[in-house]
Amino acid sequence: MSTTFRRSPLALTILGVLETGPLHPYGIQQLIKQWGKDQVVNVGQRATLYKMITRLVEAGLIAVQGTGRDQLYPERTTYEITDSGRAASRQWLDEILSTPRNEYPEFPAALSFLALVTPQTTRTLLQARRERLAQRVAELDAAIVTETEAYGLPRVTMLESEYVRAVTDAELRWVDAIVEGLGDGTLAWSDATFEAIPRLPS
Is the pLDDT assigned to residue 192 strictly greater than 70? Predict the structure, then answer.
């Protein structure tokens, strides 16, 4: 197994999908979407998927199983997971599931500089975010119902959707509280707030 390959959600997902059997890149992308894994992994750009497949091949985690063509499609390369790929996916699962990691999302970074804009502007922006979060929760609820009732999927295959729904709902409730504080004045600042933050001596 490669000891230098840097894991990523997309790499783990490709390995997981190939556990079901050999697939070509388009089939990998479509199965990820069919399973709803595009809720947690970005596979919108085919080029990104191809680049990751190339990296996994170079690392020995997947291998070319063969090529073929039919009347409807050009020649396609089919890939399969290797023993090293299976070992890597299990190692990554062990590490990811057991150890929280700060992934440095952009929203907290923006929150750390709210003093650069006015409370009024912040309230307007967060209200817009609040509406999008509420819509997202509703979409996730609908997707979970569809996956459960229409497809009859076992719960273990939908835990990532439950997690995303729980995190999104928690953020929604937190944003609601901040918007309320900005509205009633319990959370406020002035133009001088940012300037008053201590700085290192020059």
Answer: yes
Tokens of 141: 């609820």
- The three-state secondary structure class of 79 is strand
Catalogue the E-assigned strands of 62-109.
62-68, 76-81
Residues 6+ apart with CB under 8 A from 14: 28, 49, 52, 53, 56, 62
Cα angle, residue 48 at apex, residues 75 and 23 outer, rounded to 5°:
40
State how far the Cα of 151 lies from the Cα of 29, in Å rounded to an integer: 19
Buried b (16+ CB within 10 A) or exposed e, 83-103: ebbeebbeebeeeeeeeeeee
Against a cut of 0.85, is the pTM above it? Answer: no
